[in-house]
Every structure is written in structure tokens, then in C-alpha cells.
Amino acid sequence: MEKIFNALGDKSRRYLLDLLYERNGQTLSELSSHLDMSRQAVTKHLKILEDANLIVPVWKGKEKLHYLNPVPLRLIYSRWISKFDEDRLQGLYNMKDELENNTLEDKMKGFVYQIVIAASAEKVWESLTNPEFTQKFWFGRKVVSDWEVGSDVKVITPEDNAEVNGKVLEYKPFTRLSYTWKTPDITSEDEVTTVVFELQEMGPTTKVTILHDMDAESAKFNQAAAGWTFILCGLKTYLETGAPMPSIPWKGKA
């Protein structure tokens, strides 16, 4: 938490986060053009934000793109703000969102979320692939597959409905998992998206990254992006405390 508060304590770094809020996935050159400082100074600020896990760098060819990562902010919210008056604050947030109609997820082209969990990569992997574990933090849902490349993947709701159907694309134990993401209302293969989980063990902790290439113009984009935030926070809370994270129930389709 100390790194997060330190990163947010500088107005230039807050402005960089604002720029990524306005348009996610920007290069160093694009971000530097908005600040009256050297590229080297901007690089240092970005490194502090990256160390605090508030941004996630993604390489696309020779370009390094920077993505805003809202998960740590959600954890701060869950730890302190939600204890006081979550329902009322959520209502105000929803009203603000409706009035502005201008959320972060609306402006992103796909999203990248990341979190560090105090657990081994093996334990995180088991939690992502074992349905008995997924239902502990995935809004009661089971993710079911035999995890062979090409096999089916299903996200099963507590009502025993297949909410998502997909195919396993990659299965590299403790490192990388990816599968296609298709909800029942999708009729065109062009609308099928891909979810990628990347795990990097760092001593007693594991860095977990989720990449989802969902089109920002999709009507379900906002809900999917919010859903992944809660899923990551729930995964961290469950593995580190053994108890599920209290949260607003997620009843919609991602």
C-alpha cells in the first residue's frame, strides 16, 4: 500500500494516470507530449507507477504501451471505503457514471489488469483451473475444462447455466493460460474474444496479469472490465486470507 500512496502523492504522476484514463495504451512519446518535462523525467514517473502496479507495460512489437491498472485502487476501496457506506457510495458512483457516460472502460481498446498475490504460482494456477476453487472468488461460478489445447472451457453459473463457452488455446502450467470467450448471445466468430492469464512467480509472491481483447465498443465491455477487477481482487483475498471477499453480487454476463 505504501508504494501506491507514494505514487499517488505526486501531481505529475496523477496526471499521467489521468491521461491513461482518457486514452489507455499510450507510448512514452505520447505521454511525454502532454508534460513540460524531459522524457527521462517522465520515464522515472512511469517507473514509480509501474512499481506501485498502477500501470502495466505491454510490448507490441517495438512499442511499449502503458495501461492503467485499477485493481490496486479497488483493493484500497475494499479495505477502507467500503467499510463505511458501500451501498450509498456505489449509488453515487452509478449516478455519476450515468450522467457522464464517460467511464474508463469506454475509452480502452481491450484491457490489461494486474495484481501481486502472496501465494505460489502453483497455488494461483490451481485456483484458476480447479472449479472447486474458482467458485470461491468468481461470483460462485465454476470454470470447467480438461485443459487440453483445443478442449472446451465453460463458465458455469450457480444456477448451472453455461455463461461462457470457449476453447483452450494455451496451457503452460504455472505460467500462461488462454482460452476463447464466447457468450450465448454471440452469433459471429468475429465477436469471439480471448482471455489470457500470465503468471510470474517472484519469491513468495506471484504476479498475475489478465489480458482481454474485448472491443471497447461492445455493449458488454464495461461489465466485463469491472468483473475482472472483482475477480482479481477476490482471488487475492481468497488466497491470502482463506475467505472470500465481500462484494456486490455480479449477476450479469461478461
Descriptive notes:
With 254 residues, the chain is an alpha+beta fold. The protein folds into two domains: 67 residues, Winged helix-like DNA-binding domain superfamily/Winged helix DNA-binding domain (Arc Repressor Mutant, subunit A, Orthogonal Bundle); 171 residues, START domain (Alpha-D-Glucose-1,6-Bisphosphate, Chain A, domain 4, 2-Layer Sandwich). The protein is built from nine helices and nine strands. About 9% of the residues have low confidence.
Compose a concise summary of this entry.
The chain is of the alpha+beta class and 254 residues long. The protein is built from 9 helices and 9 strands.
Count of the separate structural domains: 2
Instruction: Report the sheet with the most strands, covering strand number, pairing sense and barrel closure.
Output: 7 strands, antiparallel
CATH superfamily of the largest domain: START domain
Which percent range fits the helix content?
A: 40-55%
Keywords for this entry:
254 residues, alpha+beta, Arc Repressor Mutant, subunit A, Alpha-D-Glucose-1,6-Bisphosphate, Chain A, domain 4, 2 domains, two-stranded antiparallel ribbon, 43% helix
What's the helix and strand layout?
Elements: H1 2-8, H2 11-22, H3 28-32, H4 39-51, E1 55-60, E2 63-68, H5 71-100, H6 104-107, E3 111-117, H7 121-129, H8 131-137, E4 142-144, E5 152-156, E6 162-172, E7 176-181, E8 193-202, E9 205-212, H9 221-241
Helix pairs in contact: 1-4, 5-9, 7-8
